Each structure stands twice: as C-alpha cells, then as structure tokens.
Amino acid sequence: MADTQQVNPKAEKKAARIAQQISSFAGAHGGAEGQIAYIGQRGARIVLVGDDGGWGDLVAPSYEIARMAVEKAGITVHEDFDGEFAAKVRTGPYEWSRMAGIQVGGPSNG
Hints:
Helix content is about 45%, strand content about 20%. It has four helices and four strands.
C-alpha cells in the first residue's frame, strides 16, 4: 500500500528555509553536526557544531520541521549533546566570561 501521508506545504517550505541556513553554516565551518531539542510550545532548537568548532543554533516551530530540516541539509544528528559531540565545541573569551560571571555572582534570578 502506498504511503498517503500528506506533507503540509507551509511546513515543507519552512523546513527548506531552515535547511538552507544549516547548509550555509556547514559550508562556512567545514561541515556540521547537530542535535535537536524540544523546547515546548516554541518548537525545537537545532544546535549546530561546525567541524572547526564554531557553533550556533536555530529554532524551528516544531520538532517535525526541525527533523525535516536536518534531513534536507544532510547533517549528522546526535541524540544528546554530550561526550565527543560536546567536546567539538570551541569557546572563546566571551563564552568563558559569561560562564564565569554566572558562577561568581553574575546575573541572578532572585
């Protein structure tokens, strides 16, 4: 029996746009890998790590659109952001100062 599942044209178009952004990131960083995290009603966050250690993220309006986008872009997707994958991220002085500020009396929630 043929697969009769319909793809929402708006979702397909959004996934194609996000896939283009992923491909652009990958091209600028010698390749890329990613991880998708569900973030509730806002959708899903796609964390990208380039082969050069550069990183960034995108937010898709749903987990399904995020999944379609990474498949279209053809990148490797990890289930978790840990281990070897996390070790590929290269941070700079800005990230270290932000992390240190949070640990030693930086911005607080109360």
